[in-house]
Each structure stands twice: as C-alpha cells, then as structure tokens.
C-alpha cells in the first residue's frame, strides 16, 4: 500500500477561464515505499501538488490517485508534515502525537505503547509532557514527524519540512529522516527548494518548471546512490563531497537555472 | 520583577492618597464642598457600614451589585461566545447573523433601559437584560475573530489527522480561539461594570448604583466617593479573578507565560 499517481493534473485558482493557472498536465507516478522529492522555483506549484494528494485542494483537470483511488478528502492514510509544524500548542508533546490515534479509536494501552515508541524513535523521551512553545524549532518538527509516523500512514507528505529550521538543525534532521526511512520505509512525497536536500534524501527528484507548473525532468538518484555506496557514509557532508553527488546536484541546478533564465527574457 | 511592579503600584496609590490629604485637609486648595477630605470619607464609610445608608449596609449593597454582575456576565458570555464561535466557523451562520448583529451593536446598552423596564419591570431582571446587551458584544466579536484568526495549517493538521466534528470543535477550534476569547471576556467584564452603575441609577432599591444616586440627591460628596471607590475595588477584584482563571487556562500559550 502507498502508491501516488498524478495523471495529467491541472489546477486553476479562481475562475476557470480568467483564473490563475498554477499547474498544467502534471504526470508523476510514485511507487510503494519510494521517496520522491519535487524541486522547483518558488511559485511553481509544487506545494499545490502535495496539497492535492493531502486532499486540501481539488484538481481542475486530470486525476490524483492514492492506492489507485481518487483523493476525495483529507485523511490519516496520508499524513502531512507542514513547514510551520502546525502542532496543537495547547496540547503536550504526548497529546499531540496521541491525537490522531484517538481519532482512529485505538485503545489506551495500544496508544501508550505506540506513543512511547515514537517518542523514543524521535529522541523525545524526556519531552513528552512539554508544550510545543517550550521546545526549539527542530524539536517541534520532530514532534510533527512523530505525529505523522505514529499513524502508520500509507504515504507521508512533507511540505518543505526543514525550511523553517536553522542550517545546523536542518542537517541533523536530514540525517535523522534518512535513518528513519531505513528503519521504517514509507512512500514519501517531499517538497523542497533545496537541491542538495532533495538529492541527499530522495530516490528520484522531479524538477518542476515555472508557471504553469509541470514536471520537466525526473532524475534517478537511487541507482547512483546504490552504485556509489552513499549509504556507507554516516555523515551528510561526506556524502555531499562525493563526485557522484556533486554531479547530480550540478545537473539539477542547471536544469533549474534554465527556468530562471527563461523568465529573464 | 513582579514584586518590584507591585511596590511601584503601591507607591503610586500611596502618592495619590498623600496628594488627596495635601489638597483637601492640609492646605485646603480644594474646598470641602467640592471634594471630601479623607476624614469626611472615613465618616461616610463608617456610617454606611455601621448604620447603613440608602436602606442597607455597604457590604449588602456591594454583594447585591456583585451578584448582578456575576449573573449578567455569565449569561452574556454564555450566549456570546457560542454565537461568536458559530459565526467564525460557519459561513452560512455568519451571513445570517452578522447583519443583524451589526445593526444592534451600535445601540448603546443604556438605550435598552426603557424597553427593559417596560418588559421586565423595575427588578433585577431588567438590569440583567441591559448588562447582557453591553457584555454580550465584546464576547461575540472576540470569539468570532478568535476562530477567524486560527492558523490555517493547524485546522488542516486536524483534518489530516481525521478529527471528527465534535472533537474538532472541542479540542481544536475552541482551544485555538481561547486567547482571543479571554480578551473578549475582559472587555465584557469591563462593560458589565460600566453598565451596572448606570442600570442601578434607574429604579433600584439596593446596590452601589443606588447608593450613588441617593448620595447625589442628598448632596453628600463623601458618600459619592465611597460608592465610586466601591465600584473601583469590586471591578479590580473581579478582573483579578478573571486574570487568575486566564493564566490557569492559557498556561500552554506564550502569552500565558509572562
């Protein structure tokens, strides 16, 4: 379980004829347990793609399918991690993580067991009774990731999840996410404008063009990563130093720069 | 920090009392007919508490007014907050209620006094109705704005987590609006006191407003001051209690920390 398919998806905001055309003919298939990152210039509609999978936005043309069924409304089978964390500030860390499980009518004992497990997984054991405002940004995003992961969702949707964090915290969280993906692989749709982040995390990187947004190119990272044994390196900076990594990064950069140059004319 | 603030506050109150002595008793700059001296104030206070004035002792007047305030305030926020929340959450309810609300809102609460007396007589029910009109408005407005200002992504997070409607209201919408709701409660309480005295000026037989009314007819400035300060002290006390509740309820929020 956990495939995502975009089939000729279009999105117009406002009136169908005079409105703002955000997406045009987006097609992308994400397989089970695959990690796909979408990169693109700001305003290209990449977040809209994610929001359509989440069920926050409808499509104007085409189809968005999750497990071969069209998306109708938001639901716990598609957990979202937001850029601004979107935790419930009036609930403790434990209550935040537990909330989705309560909605799924999971019993108290089972809930306590799952929450304890995910607190441990995200190194949050000592913060279970803290309120979000007492935590740093990185810690808050750990809570948000735990809140999504604990639901055992078919797909995980991450909308620039590390965009609001400082550079050092960001690196720690990226390593953390790679570790998490190894322990507990998921279908992930990851939105970012940071090219290095996309190459480091994803199996494939989809590059979007500017207005109206469409998928311009899909780069296979996984083949290179396995062939060049990136996983043998514990630290992100060692991976980023590898020639194969630099090569892929540069290729995506060039593709994105073409976009900006076209706008310049 | 809090201790120092309290000391500064006490000094300011002390300063005003000294100034009062200086301007009236010591140097006689303000003639006694215009503003009472501290000694006259003390005599009036002893009189109303020991022998009674306007039919009752000060404690009885104060308790009666306080009871009216508590009842009216609870009725007003008990109706105003749900209405504001409903208007904030449901577009259709907003479209239906808001125009009526906007039309009624500019009418001064005291303009309801004639109707209130006509409908409910001279008793407490009429006063509750007038205070209700005054205290109701800030509760509605702030609960409405509270829902409207909820961070959109928090609502989306709740929807993504599969939250059923009742839990959405009770565990997401209401708590997220609470900081604004409390702003409304404080304004409602303020409005309650402002209106109470005016409501009691008309057709009351007991209460702080009635004391003020009688003291005015008796041309008794010291008793007027007793009545005014009673309202001040009671108003401060109720606001203080509300503040304690707020700090308790909003302990999770950044504002609640200070």
Automatic annotation (TrEMBL), chain A:
Gene3D superfamilies for the chain: P-loop containing nucleotide triphosphate hydrolases
> Would the keyword Coiled coil be found if you checked this record's keyword annotation?
no
SUPFAM superfamilies (alphabetical): P-loop containing nucleoside triphosphate hydrolases
Pfam families cross-referenced by the UniProt entry = ABC_tran
Supply the alphabetized keyword list.
Answer: ATP-binding, Nucleotide-binding, Transport
List the GO molecular function terms.
Answer: ATP binding
> This protein is called what?
ABC transporter ATP-binding protein
From TrEMBL, chain B:
Q: Which family does it belong to?
A: Belongs to the binding-protein-dependent transport system permease family.
Per the record, membrane topology reads: Multi-pass membrane protein
State the organism of origin. Jiella sonneratiae
Pfam families registered for this protein in UniProt:
BPD_transp_1
Where does the ABC transmembrane type-1 domain start and stop, copy by copy? 62-242
Which domain of life does the UniProt lineage start with?
Answer: Bacteria
Q: Does Mitochondrion count among this protein's keywords?
A: no
List, alphabetically, the CDD domains matched.
Answer: TM_PBP2 (cd06261)
Family annotation (Gene3D superfamilies): MetI-like (1.10.3720.10)
PROSITE patterns, sorted: ABC_TM1
Q: Which UniProt keywords apply?
A: Cell membrane, Membrane, Transmembrane, Transmembrane helix, Transport
Protein name, as recorded: ABC transporter permease
